[in-house]
Amino acid sequence: MNTNNTEENTQPFISHLIELRTRLLKVVLFVIVIFLALSAYANEIYSILAGPLMKHMPQNSSMIAIDVASPFFTPFKLALFVAVFISIPFILYQFWAFVAPGLYKHERRMIFPLLIASTFLFYLGVVFAYFVVFPLIFGFLTTAAPEGVAVMTDISKYLDFILTLFFAFGICFEVPIFTIVMVWTGIVTPESLAEKRPYVIVGAFVIGAFLTPPDAISQTLLAVPMWLLFEIGLLFSKLFTGTHVDEVENLPSKIED
Q1: 3-class DSSP assignment, residue 103
Q2: Residue 142: which residues within 8 A CB-CB, separation 6 or more?
Q3: Three-state helix/strand/coil letters over 205-246
């Protein structure tokens, strides 16, 4: 009997591993296809991404490549990151398709909208960084150089810098999702979060000071959206909490039916 039970438990586990491997292969192949399609335009994509800096560079100056191979590899590195960025909805869909069968109905109703919202907010944070924050940062940094110092940024260092900012702002714009998940899992309550609002506002300005140049305008442009996103997350967490409580209370009657 014990041997049979062990075999029965092992078979579903192996089937889950096979399904996980299949979905990971689909993700890798999807990213590779997108990367191959973008690789032909790698230099053009890099030029677009370098636009916010080039607009503020002094006349007759340009970006430089310190490493011998960086003019070739850096645009392709960017193309790979862009391919992953474009593939995020497909990656999340594969994740959702893998975990959804093991979730309760009320959990599926909760997680799927959160996946969609988190994807949208991450993209929104990246767009905000490119169109709002980058012009301010590069406008400040290019004018802050001491007299006699030529501003010539290395293309590889520039790519690392902007990818870091993209990731940072994308994560910062996930504040409503973090708030809703913490409330939904019972770690905190909407009331306790509301009481910590002053600390959240101070924390938003501290994060803004680390991620932006040392001026009040750019710091405020990051801190205020983070605070507003926290308020949005707090509002939706109250709505989700009420819905979740109603479903839990009605669950015994549904089971009996």
Answers
A1: coil
A2: 53, 56, 57, 58, 151
A3: HHHHHHHCCCCHHHHHHHHHHHHHHHHHHHHHHHHHHHHHHH
Q: How many CA atoms lie within 13 A of 37 on its CB side?
A: 11
For residue 64, the cross-strand partners are 154
Phi, psi of 154 (to 5 degrees): -75, 135
Output DSSP code: residue 137: H
Element (DSSP H or E) covering residue 142: helix 134-143
> For residue range 42-77, what is the model confidence (pLDDT) as tens digits?
999 999 999 888 888 877 778 888 888 888 899 999
pLDDT for position 27: 94
Q: Which two tokens stand for residue 107?
A: 């959990």
Q: Are 32 and 120 in contact (CB under 8 A)?
A: no
**Are 64 and 152 in contact, with CB atoms under 8 Å apart?**
yes
Nearest Cα neighbor of 114 from 254, 245, 240 is 240
Question: What is the DSSP-derived secondary structure letter of residue 102?
Answer: G
| HSE-up of residue 239 (Cα within 13 Å, Cβ side) | 8
b (16+ CB within 10 A) / e for 126-145: bebbbeebbbbbbbbebeee
pLDDT digits (tens, 9 = 90+) for 135-171: 888 887 778 777 777 778 899 999 998 888 888 888 8
CB–CB of 114/184 below 8 Å? Answer: no
- CA 111-236-103 angle, 5° bins: 15
